Amino acid sequence: MKIVILVIFLFLANISAKDIKPYKYLKASDSVSDFAKADNMLIIGTEEGIVDIYDLEKEQFVDKITLKKQKNILGDENGILIISVDYLDDRVAFLTRELNTWGELYIYENKKLTKLIENAQHISLQKVKFLDKDRVIINTMGNELMLFDIKNKRFIYKKQLGLGSFSDLVLSEDKKYLFSADETPQINKIEINSGKVMEKYEEANKRDIFSIDYKNSLLLSGGKDKRVILYKTPLQYKMTKGDFFIQSVALNPDATKAAFTKNDNDEISIIDTNTLEETHLLKGHKKTVIKIDFYMSNELITADEGNQLTFWRLK
Questions:
Q1: Alpha carbon of 65 to those of 39, 54, 72, 285: distances in Å?
Q2: What is the spatial distance between Cα 52 and Cα 30, in angstroms, rounded to a whole number?
Q3: Structure confidence by residue, pLDDT tens digits, 87-115
Q4: Is 10 contained in some domain?
Q5: Which residue among 160, 198, 216, 301 is buried most deeply as judged by most CB within 10 Å?
Q6: pLDDT of the residue at 15
Q7: pLDDT value, residue 14
Q8: Which of 49, 132, 31, 144 is nearest to 86 (CA)?
Q9: Residue numbers of the domain that contains 178
């Protein structure tokens, strides 16, 4: 079988790219560790045990979850890291990581906070995503994939995906599949209900993968090799490069645009996914960008290691 591989190297210093400045900032309760947007709600996890809930339509904070502080070995109080957040149908799911690296899973609904996985279970939780109102998918630092039943408070399955440390996962739009990356050059496509690995993407990335996204049948990845890969299939892809480690990537809803951290100045490049031409360059972050999300087709929300979210509009 003939392998069709389209590899295109582009220099991203494209003089036609438009420089874009933020049009809005949103200050969180503390340094941002993760955020998730669903419907008109924006859920913001912080490094100090606070989850902010912001209504994008009303343009105001509507709720806040604050966890009790933990004590370190010296007796000093520290906030608990909120490592991952998600939202579905008025429910917030979030993971914590305590000083001993073990984590907890919480569900927040109707002003009620319920703990479903406890620190005493000794699981190093890393990322959570809702599948439906009764199930979440979780990955651990040690790259174990777990399907969890919220209603019955039990694991449906646990699957060890590999030896590399977990880095990122993303769901397909129909939530039948997920794509999971770790600190190797490989991405797994997994059938969620069974946990079975269906395909492996391992041709283009050469070092640790840090971030992935999937929209409209296009898989986007970036990592330590400075490569930005756009996979149509495991053997068919396009490639461009940044000037530094690719810490975060994102696709707009129809996958016509891709965003990625371009350089060590914390600038974000926007490219046309068909031509790979750089169309916009987002400038304004002063700290390392940790997450990029397309708010709409031409609007993005980003977060760095500071205490605010930044909003961008492509012109």
A1: 19, 12, 22, 27
A2: 9
A3: 999 999 999 998 888 999 999 999 999 99
A4: no
A5: 301
A6: 52
A7: 46
A8: 132
A9: 18-313
